[in-house]
Structure to design on (85 residues):
């Protein structure tokens, strides 16, 4: 299942703000792909899952439904920097 097109930059920024407030749950940490924003790193799949929640008003997007490289592509399309370690 591809990541729906409804996720916009503002949704990603809201997801980043939530992570800044609440942190990243241990099972949602990333070990290979990282979103770099304002000098901090974030797990792209978790960011996309949260951004989907903000875009739809429903729950998070199930991380089992998409791959890290898909999250990377969406985030880059929205103007974010994603790198692979």
């Amino acid at each position: 299942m591809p990541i729906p097109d409804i996720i916009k930059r503002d949704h990603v920024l809201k997801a980043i703000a939530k992570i800044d407030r609440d942190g990243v749950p241990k099972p949602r940490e990333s070990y290979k792909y990282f979103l770099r924003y304002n000098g901090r790193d974030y797990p792209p799949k978790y960011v996309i899952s949260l951004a989907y929640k903000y875009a739809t008003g429903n729950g998070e997007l199930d991380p089992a439904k998409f791959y890290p490289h898909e999250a990377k592509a969406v985030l880059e399309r929205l103007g974010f920097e994603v790198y692979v370690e």
